[in-house]
From TrEMBL:
Compartment(s) of residence: Membrane
Superkingdom to which the source organism belongs: Bacteria
Transmembrane feature ranges: 36-58, 64-86, 107-131, 161-180, 192-210, 230-247, 259-285, 305-328, 358-376, 382-403, 415-437, 443-460
Any one cellular-component term (Gene Ontology): membrane
Protein name: Amino acid permease-associated region
Keyword check for Secreted: no
InterPro entries for the chain: AA/rel_permease1
Membrane topology note: Multi-pass membrane protein
Main location (coarse class): membrane
Lineage: Bacteria, Bacillati, Bacillota, Clostridia, Thermoanaerobacterales
Keyword Ribonucleoprotein found: no
GO MF annotation list: amino acid transmembrane transporter activity
Keywords annotated in UniProt: Membrane, Transmembrane, Transmembrane helix, Transport
Length: 471
């Protein structure tokens, strides 16, 4: 086979369905539409609104953080429509990776798979560090003080050694993922119900303390600030694509996947707009530069009694994000390994729990080391870059499949193709260009590492490379 043909060898729908039903790789189908909406809300509502919104408002957007959330949400909405079409067509683990494998071929699939590993795996330590901050603050308010050396490393702040709370929560999340998807979903559903209550509580309590003068000037950093803010708070939306990684464990993916993806994105967007408007109306945006901006805002207006509830809500919110993102990370590595592009160990399924045990071990080890010792500031932008790239590939895959394979059954058909995915690509590219040049450099370095792995291992061990028609 020539190298050009090797790069573009594609999987068929029959191949991926056969993989999903193979006893060796079969995952347990236990999730419903309600589980999927909750899974999406579990991944979306968390670090973005409880941690990053304050920094974005203080340094990037000001009160126009509302517009930043709308802009980021709009970009995600166009991409989510594409996700809904592909997830209903291809009920498999792996999300964008498998969509690209079918539409564009193996090399592009590897590129996006490697990108998804960056997105999900690096998101976990970043989110765990936010969880650690809220957790230690809550304990401190109750009179329990953890020594400084145990709450952050030397790279995360002076006087630190290791971030034990961040490591501890990731180990707990790994155990929950290990015992099964349905058990993870049940715990997630309970957490989602509580954190939505806390968000609504903040809206209800805060609205009577809004002072319109705090919204002036509305755009202190201009439209450039709105776009920079959108590029930061994009992190708040990144979880909606995690819903598509659960397709293989969903009872009726053709119907339930679009509901899960679009439903969770729509609900979270409305909540984000309301919270960000009230947050900047309650206090001046310049005072929101804090790792716990919602709790701080309540404290500044004298509602100290409400801070504890909000802090607890934030901890639960971020915990559910960790649950879903950890779940997505393991399923992506599982799917790539099943295709032979990563060692087969990572696609072995536990005989009792039917979960990818070794993928879970790998993610736990990598993320606990990162969360225990590395700083958070660089990670968030790099994760956003990876997410945006994945959304662009997904949107492009819808266009390619409509023209190359129009006969494929589409249980949910995205409206306005090719305009809808083109708009998604346009808006997301705008946000990508708002990220720093250092983030672009780190992103390129990550892909260079990925190229070495593909050319040194993946292309020789690929399942397709062993099939006669691809030789």
């Amino acid at each position: 086979m020539t190298h050009s043909k090797e790069f573009f060898r594609r999987k068929t729908l029959e191949m991926i369905l056969a993989d999903a039903e193979s006893e060796q790789y079969k995952l347990k189908k236990s999730l419903t539409a309600v589980d999927l909406v909750a899974l999406g809300l579990g991944a979306i509502i968390g670090t973005g609104i409880f941690v990053l919104a304050g920094v974005a408002a203080a340094e990037k957007s000001g009160p126009s953080i509302v517009l930043s959330f709308i802009l980021a949400g709009l970009a995600c909405a166009f991409a989510a429509i594409s996700y809904a079409e592909l997830a209903s067509m291809f009920p498999i683990a792996g999300s964008t990776y498998n969509y690209a494998y079918i539409a564009m071929g193996e090399f592009i699939a590897w590129i996006i798979g490697w990108d998804l590993i960056l997105e999900y795996v690096l998101a976990l330590p970043a989110i765990a560090l936010g969880w650690s901050s809220y957790f230690t603050n809550l304990l401190s308010s109750l009179g329990v003080n953890i020594p400084g050396w145990a709450t952050h490393s030397s790279l995360q702040g002076s006087g630190g050694l290791i971030n034990i709370p961040a490591i501890g929560i990731l180990i707990i999340i790994a155990i929950l993922n290990y015992i099964g998807a349905k058990e993870t979903a049940t715990i997630n559903n309970i957490g989602v119900a509580f954190k939505v209550f806390v968000v609504l509580f903040f809206i209800f309590v805060g609205i009577s303390h809004v002072r319109p003068v705090n919204w002036q000037p509305f755009m202190p950093y201009g439209w450039k600030g709105v776009f920079k803010g959108a590029a930061i708070v994009f992190f708040a939306y990144m979880g909606f694509d995690a819903v598509s990684t659960a397709a293989e464990e969903t009872k009726n993916p053709a119907k339930d996947m679009p509901i899960g993806i679009l439903g969770s994105l729509g609900i979270s967007t409305l909540l984000y707009i309301a919270v960000s408007a009230i947050l900047t109306g309650v206090v001046s945006y310049g005072e929101l530069k804090d790792t716990a901006p919602v709790a701080k805002a309540l404290g500044l207006i004298g509602l100290n009694w409400a801070q504890g509830l909000v802090s607890l809500g934030a901890i639960i919110a971020i915990t559910t994000v960790l649950l879903v993102m950890f779940y997505g990370a393991t399923r992506i590595i599982f799917a790539i390994s099943r295709d032979g592009l990563l060692p087969p160990t990572f696609s072995k399924v536990h005989p009792k729990f039917r979960t990818p045990a070794f993928s879970i071990y790998l993610i736990m080890i990598v993320t606990t080391l990162a969360a225990g010792f590395l700083p958070i500031d660089i990670i968030a932008e790099l994760v956003n870059m990876g997410t945006m790239f994945a959304l662009i590939i997904t949107s492009a895959a819808v266009i390619v499949l409509r023209y190359k394979q129009p006969e494929l059954p589409r249980n949910f058909k995205a409206p306005g193709v090719p305009l809808t995915p083109i708009l998604a690509i346009f808006f997301i590219l705008l946000l990508m260009l708002s990220l720093s040049w250092q983030t672009w450099v780190r992103f390129i370095v990550w892909f260079v590492i990925g190229l070495f792995i593909y050319f040194g291992y993946g292309r020789y061990h690929s399942i397709l490379a062993k099939l006669k028609e691809y030789q």
